[in-house]
Fold this protein.
Amino acid sequence: MPASVIDEKKYLRAFLEEAEELLEKLSDSLLELEKDTENTELVHEVFRLIHSIKSESALLGFTCLSGLAHRLEDVFERIRSGGIVLDKPLMDKIFTGSDLIHEMIGRISRGESDSNIDDRSMIEELESLGRREELPEPGPARPKRSG
């Protein structure tokens, strides 16, 4: 067996081990975040975990997994910057995205492709959420003109 095939299997095994740890931490952090959506430390932690999954999967050529993680990362960047509020509907979408990431990694671990999952609608929803603008805060009431 050529050395490059052995190295590839070694890298894949290391990726899957790391991904399992990241997914476990991500699941725990998301459950905690669901209880305390204003916890900025948890928001930053989830961002870092998703960023790691994105980067490591891209390094090994898992473009679908990396793309989905990138969309989630974009959403968390908007949350971190205050561009969107982490509410129940958004948490539901984040959990759905996380479930898809779990499924993709499970397929990769079974020797399947990460591209055999229809993630288009989830990607589109996350892209929309990543760009979603909040309504401006109401400003102070204008004084009435006396006339």
Summary: Residues 51 and 73 are 6 Å apart (CA to CA).
